[in-house]
Specification:
With 268 residues, the protein is of the alpha/beta class. The protein has 11 helices and 10 strands. Bound molecules: D-glutamic acid (DGL).
Length: 268
């Protein structure tokens, strides 16, 4: 049975979940985390809902073996299609990133016109649209998949001509809709915040789903009375392939390279 000193599990398709991990570390310094990035099967974004569900269940089972007190699904694509299934198989509470982001967007919008960007899978699932329509009735929601933002972020193209061109390609149409809030519905997009904000204009509020999810995780821990009073050990980050690349690219996501990366056998 997990208790207050048990770790929090974080599941992602690969490295992008580090944006969520980073926020969780800032907000919850007393907690211990076990991260799993399914790098052998990354990316999840272009895959079918059925396959993403299957992958997510395998990842969750691995993390549940650590007796985690909470399972955070950092990957937007997995959260958008697999959350119900994960809650069925999980003995521990599951936090996704969709509802927190949707809540934050519904809270901040004044015009009632909200944009959502994410992977092809996240947008196709309609998950953000469903949640926002319930939370803020009558809201107009415009969704656009932006798949190229993911490799751009991992290659360190945060700024400059290339990401700017891609951002215009995806976002110019959205800008014309007159939205005042844009949900960054993918783990990687916070790294491109500057360029996205430049294209959308500074009157459009960018909702960082990693920040929203970390805040909800903190709330849930205190609500359930399971927040840890002190750190009970070091974090471990597991990957299913290419730990060296994870270590190198982690610097872009965290500001420093992560060393304690352990490769496990892929669930193939
Ligand atoms: N983690 C994914 C997400 O947030 C992006 C990367 C992928 O496609 O696997 O949707």
């Amino acid at each position: 049975m997990p208790d207050r000193s048990s770790p929090i599990g974080i599941f992602d398709s690969g490295i992008g979940g580090l944006t969520v991990y980073r926020r969780l570390l800032e907000l919850l310094p007393n907690e211990r985390f076990v991260y799993l990035g399914d790098t052998a099967r990354y990316p999840y974004g272009p895959r079918s809902a059925e396959i993403v569900k299957r992958f997510a269940v395998q990842g969750a089972r691995f993390l549940l073996d650590f007796d985690v007190k909470l399972l955070v699904v950092a990957c937007n694509t997995a959260s958008s299609v697999a959350l119900d299934t994960l809650r069925e198989v999980s003995s521990t509470p599951v936090v996704g990133v969709i509802l927190p982001g949707a809540r934050m967007a519904s809270r901040v919008t004044k015009s009632g016109r909200i944009g959502v960007i994410g992977t092809v899978g996240t947008i196709r699932s309609g998950a953000y649209k469903r949640e926002i329509s319930v939370l803020a009735k009558g809201t107009e929601i415009y969704e656009v998949p932006c798949p190229l933002f993911v490799p751009l972020a991992e290659e360190g193209f945060f700024d400059g001509e290339i990401p700017e061109m891609v951002a215009h390609y995806y976002l110019d149409g959205l800008k014309e809709k007159g939205i005042d809030t844009l949900v960054l519905g993918c783990t990687h997009y916070p790294l491109l915040k500057r360029v996205i904000s430049r294209v959308m204009g500074n009157r459009v509020y960018l909702v960082d789903s990693a920040v929203a999810a970390a805040e909800e995780t903190a709330d849930l821990l205190s609500l359930k009375g399971i927040a840890s009073p002190e750190r009970s050990g070091e974090d471990i980050l597991y990957v299913t392939d290419a730990p060296e690349r994870f270590r190198t690219v982690s610097k872009l996501f965290m500001g420093y390279p992560i060393d304690n990366v352990v490769k496990i056998e892929p669930f193939l």
